[in-house]
Amino acid sequence: MIYEASVFAVVLFVVFVILVLGISKYFASRTTSSKGYYAAGGTIHWGVNGIAFAGDYLSAASFLGICGMIAFQGYDGFLYSIGYLAGWVVALFVVAEPLKKSGKYTFTDALDNRFNSKAIQLMAALSTLIVSVCYLIPQMVGAGALVKPLLGMPHWVGVIIVGSIVIFIVATAGMASTTYVQFIKGSLLIIFSTVLTISLCVNGFKLKPDENYRELRSLEATAVAGKVSAASEGYTVAGQQGDLVKLSKDGINTWWQLKTEGGKAVLKEALSATIQANGSKLYNGEPQEKRKFFQVGAMTKIIVDGKEVEETGPVGPFEFLETIDKGEVLRFKKNIIHDGDNKVTVWNQNITPGKDLMRPGMKFKVDTDKGATFMSKLNFVSLMLALFFGTSALPHILIRYYTVPSPKDARKSTIVAIGSIGFFYILTLFMGLGAMTHGVLDLESSNMSAPLLAKFFGIALFSIISAIAFATVLGTVSGLIVAASGAVAHDLMSNFAGVKMTDEGQVRAGKISAICVGIIAIILGILFKGMNVSFLVGLAFAVAASANLPAIFMVLFWKKTSAMGVACSILVGMISALGIILCSPSMWVRYGLDPATAPIALDNPGIISIPLAFITLVVVSILLPGKRDENGHVVRH
Amino acid sequence: MAGHGPASDWGEDKASDYKEKLGIYLFIVYCIVYAGFVAINTLSPKLMGVVVFAGLNLACVYGFGLIILAIIMGVIYNAMCSAAEDRMNNTAGEGN
């Protein structure tokens, strides 16, 4: 699909960039100590830190990914919102205060506080780097994907722009500038998502969402035993694969689906994208610049007070959800076929009852009547487990506990985070379902659902939401680079390798590490163009939940935990989570292999790797205990 | 060794054990509610489609409920921790 660049969006983005660069420059002069660089001096107000948590956490995957998933898959996308938010409960009740008390700048500090173990320093720093990089890549890929349609620039330019700005933010003032960038971005995201949701409720639902909505056509057809021989309106039959029929008119090929209505054969219009043998791409049979690939998604049946209507008028939030539940929605089913030397993606119409969209089962196979198996259910449970335990183990989230003055402030800022993030996640259901039913979906890019929904309400809201989407990437990447640079400069160089540095030297090492990590992120963002972003975020959560959470939990609550137990637990958690993912059916598809032959039938490793890491920690701590202090805590192996 | 120890120093927190236990209890309560949600989704997904409140089905009510419950429990936890800190540490300000 071709998007027109919005000048207003570009102006807003430039204003935001100037603002964050100004903030960074302002804080740069104040950031002279390592405490200032890594922990913003520990002086951030808990309210600001709470919103900054939201800014950190609500990444492109949350904003663009979840909205897009709900727009395409219904309630199943909202399950991510629930899991991501529930993870904060672990952070608040279990991790926040103890971590603040025991740590200094990084998550490794907290784990290693009473051990001073090289093994923990190395493993925790490696885990931080792996999780941060897994999280960084999708953010950078997302930056490129956003720049292309919205600013009209190539993918690599977008990645370099975002990477360069973020390097400047982090390398000038570290955590202080990052915190305020997150605060501004988090606030804007929540405010304008609320505006978008209110606009949706005021607009209500219509069978024809607006005057530009392109209604799909039907043709009469002659068919015998499922084979089409003729079609109306001057079309000729050019081919057929199953119920998908290729028709030709004026030299343009389009795809249709054969259906039977009232005993008669009819052809229902489908959308298609054809990659030709020479590599060129056609949309609905014509080159991209002809703009024949239109936006879709609308309600086909609206029921109010038991009667079918054409529009609802303004609705309240509960009515909004109820209307979809009682109605029917025009969705599309994706088919990939080979037509001679051409590879064709055909999206055929799929009218879905709202009640099926408003309960689980469209994406996750949990319903036995719809072919769910024990393994598919286990996969779902495993995902929900990783989401629950992953949040409180993400390094870029954990380091934010060191920016506030006291454990009490850490607790309060977590509550602000839960309130703001929870509110935002409730809005994702409305925004996603709104995109599904307002004729704005780009079938090739679910990630564009939220910005395109904003466009439905005018170019101003579209521009603001687009600028916020950029800001989302900037904010999250900044936090990740601070976490990764801390792992390199503070954990690996200073603590593990024992490189003697003055306080100023530590700041310099942090800044140089940030620049290096930023450059690596830019390169990976360009190399991984086209990679599924939500997949990599899921990977980061699974590794964090498996490698970090068991270690954090046991260090805090089990006195017999030993240094080797922690180090081995992190290693086993990391390797098992990565290993299961690399051998999973999803990866088998990416390798071009039959997913049924994958050695492990699970896509989500949490249900195996998290218990495995816990067991490893307990067994190794018992076999290799360390010395104990007067309280019975193991202190050193 | 450079780099170890907490970023700031604060006095002894006599409410620490109480807060730790309270946190664990609330965590277990939330875990049970969350596990119930995952269990229904996994074992009886059709039940999630049953309308239970104001035209909303169980999936929406339970999902929103989990998010709102997290916020409410967080506020209660903070209030109880703050009260315990004031009572046990006998201090008024921050930095326990």
- The H-level CATH homologous superfamily of one domain in chain A, spelled out, is Sodium/glucose cotransporter
**End-to-end separation of chain B:** 26 Å
Count the beta strands of chain B: 2
**What overall form of chain B do the CA principal axes indicate?**
elongated
What is the residue-averaged pLDDT of chain B?
A: 83
Q: Low-confidence runs of chain B (pLDDT<50, min 5 residues)?
A: 1-7, 92-96
The largest β sheet of chain B comes out as:
2 strands, antiparallel
Return the average pLDDT of chain A rounded to an integer: 85
Give the N-to-C terminal Cα separation of chain A: 59 Å
Number of domains of chain B: 1
Parts with pLDDT < 50 across at least 5 consecutive residues of chain A: none
Structural class by secondary-structure content of chain B:
mainly alpha
Count of helices of chain A?
20
Query: Most extensive interface, residues per chain?
Result: A-B, 72 and 53 residues
Please bin the fraction of helical residues of chain B: 55-70%
Order of strands in the sheet with most strands of chain B: 1-2
CATH topology of one domain in chain A: Sodium/glucose cotransporter
Structural category of chain A is alpha+beta
Q: What is the CA-atom radius of gyration of chain B, in angstroms?
A: 20 Å
What does this structure look like?
The complex is a heterodimer of chains A (637) and B (96). Chain A is an alpha+beta fold and 637 residues long. Chain A has a domain at 7-204 and 376-533: Sodium/glucose cotransporter (Up-down Bundle). Chain A has helices at 7-28, 34-39, 46-57, 60-73, 75-102, 107-112, 118-151, 155-203, 317-326, 354-357, 374-390, 395-398, 407-437, 449-456, 459-496, 503-527, 533-557, 563-582, 585-590, 606-623; strands at residues 218-224, 227-231, 236-241, 244-249, 252-261, 264-269, 271-275, 281-283, 286-287, 296-304, 307-309, 328-339, 342-353, 438-441, 627-628, 634-636. In chain A, a hairpin with a 2-residue loop joins strand 3 (236-241) and strand 4 (244-249). The longest helix of chain A has 49 residues, at 155-203. The mean pLDDT of chain A is 85. Chain B has one domain. Chain B is built from two helices and two strands, in the order H-E-E-H. A two-stranded antiparallel ribbon of chain B has the order 1-2. In chain B, helix 1 packs antiparallel against helix 2. The longest helix of chain B is centred in the C-terminal third of the chain and has 32 residues, at 58-89. Classes of the chains: A alpha+beta (637), B mainly alpha (96).
